[in-house]
Design goal:
The two termini are 26 Å apart. By secondary structure, this protein is mainly alpha-helical. It contains 15 helices and 2 strands.
């Protein structure tokens, strides 16, 4: 297979940490728009007269787009590098959500959110590949955590900025302007980011056979499948927290919409700390091992979701802050560890495709679990069973991770 090296970047721009900055900027803005569906859900619900299950379909549509985009984006990234896709994917998400703000039919809103999900989801393997090539294994946990922190930071930013502005001026004009900002940042990242000079990029046109064989190799990778199945549960649980926390605090706990939004900010700050913190813990304390960190994350999420399920109305705000900080630290902090593990289970040349493949499977949880959470709330007029659903899912995740441990042990002894 003929390959050519990417043109080297200018000497003063080749620092991995400088390149991480542009990847982080793109990731923050993509999350700022895509993840705004969570904090703005209560306003979109009122505007379009939606049920809780329909509110859950909004992130499902976004992540359906992600599921459809992740493998193709990973495949393309492995061939052309990350740089051109930073602009293309920013344009995809920015323009689709911009048009979405002009619509009132729910099915059309869902369709445009799904199209935006193509850009949102494609950005993950695009930026992940940049991390894999720019950083050594003992730096990747930290670097990937910082980059993945962009998702929770962008989500928190949308709760801090977009929710109060949308409550005052309407969600449509606020999201419209934010989409223009995404396009501008995508252009800046494209102009200033460079792919590593040593990166070999496959230039020939991919054939159906090459695509099929590449994906088949991912399907046959038992460890990668188990990582992806565990990600289904944690991913879906994370999106339940993002989608329903504001509604839960506003409707069941009786807080104002701004204070309810601040609880989402707290959980996303916890997630941002988790994405960096878990990466540093993995790199420094566990010598780059990722699996044990996923076990810790699932256990903390299980306990946190049980606690939240039985929070009574009238609980003081200050008491909820540490609870949702820890909840976010675990369930929203796992992505960097997941992305590293998925990328490290294959040869470096397949890093984009493996993370895309794992994101596609992981997205199934986000498509299915939030609407199920919403149905439980609609039927029982209470959020308790919804939070306990997350607890049950974490038990299943722990069983999958136990299987992964034995598969990795078996692979290690056979090599």
């Amino acid at each position: 297979m003929r390959t050519v090296a990417v043109s080297p970047a200018p000497a003063n721009m080749t620092s991995p940490w400088k390149m991480l900055l542009w990847l982080l900027m793109a990731q923050i803005m993509v999350a700022f728009i895509g993840r705004s569906l969570g904090p703005l859900g209560v306003l979109i619900e009122e505007d379009l007269s939606l049920s809780k299950a329909q509110v859950g379909l909004l992130p499902s549509a976004l992540f359906l787009g992600q599921a459809l985009a992740s493998i193709p984006a990973g495949f393309v990234t492995d061939r052309v590098g990350s740089r051109p896709l930073l602009l293309v994917l920013s344009l995809c998400l920015g323009t689709s959500f911009l048009v979405m703000t002009l619509q009132s039919a729910f099915w059309l809103v869902l369709l445009l959110v799904m199209i935006g999900g193509l850009g949102y989801g494609g950005m993950h393997p695009t930026t992940n590949r940049g991390i894999i090539y720019w950083f050594s294994q003992k730096q990747r946990g930290t670097a990937m955590g910082i980059k993945q922190m962009g998702i929770t930071f962008g989500s928190a930013l949308s709760a801090i900025l977009l929710l109060p502005l949308a409550a005052s001026y309407g969600w449509r004009p606020v999201v419209f302007i934010a989409c223009l900002g995404l396009v501008v940042i995508g252009l800046i990242a494209f102009l200033l980011y460079r792919d590593p000079s040593q990166q070999a990029v496959k230039k020939e046109k991919p054939t159906f056979r090459s695509v099929y064989s590449s994906i088949l190799s991912m399907v046959k990778n038992k460890a990668l499948l188990l990582v992806s199945f565990s990600a289904m549960g944690v991913n879906g649980s994370q999106m339940c927290l993002n989608t329903y926390l504001v509604l839960f605090a506003y409707e069941q706990l009786g807080f104002s919409i701004v204070l309810a939004g601040m609880l989402l900010v707290v959980s996303e700050v916890g997630g941002s700390l988790g994405r960096v913190g878990w990466g540093v813990i993995s790199d420094r304390l566990f010598d780059g091992k990722r699996l044990i960190i996923l076990v810790f994350i699932a256990c903390i999420t299980l306990v946190a979701s049980v606690v939240v399920a039985f929070i009574p109305a009238g609980t003081p705000f200050w008491l909820l802050v540490p609870i949702f900080l820890v909840f976010g630290f675990s369930v929203s902090g796992f992505n960097g560890i997941w992305m590293n593990l998925a990328s490290e289970l294959v040869p470096k040349e397949q890093a984009g495709l493996s993370s895309g493949f794992s994101i596609t499977l992981g997205s199934i949880g986000v498509i299915l679990i939030p609407p199920l959470f919403g149905v439980l709330v609609d039927q029982h007029q209470s959020y308790t069973l919804g939070w306990l659903l997350i607890s049950g899912i974490m038990v299943v995740v722990l069983l999958i991770l136990a299987s992964l441990y034995f598969v990795k042990k078996e692979n290690a002894t056979s090599h």
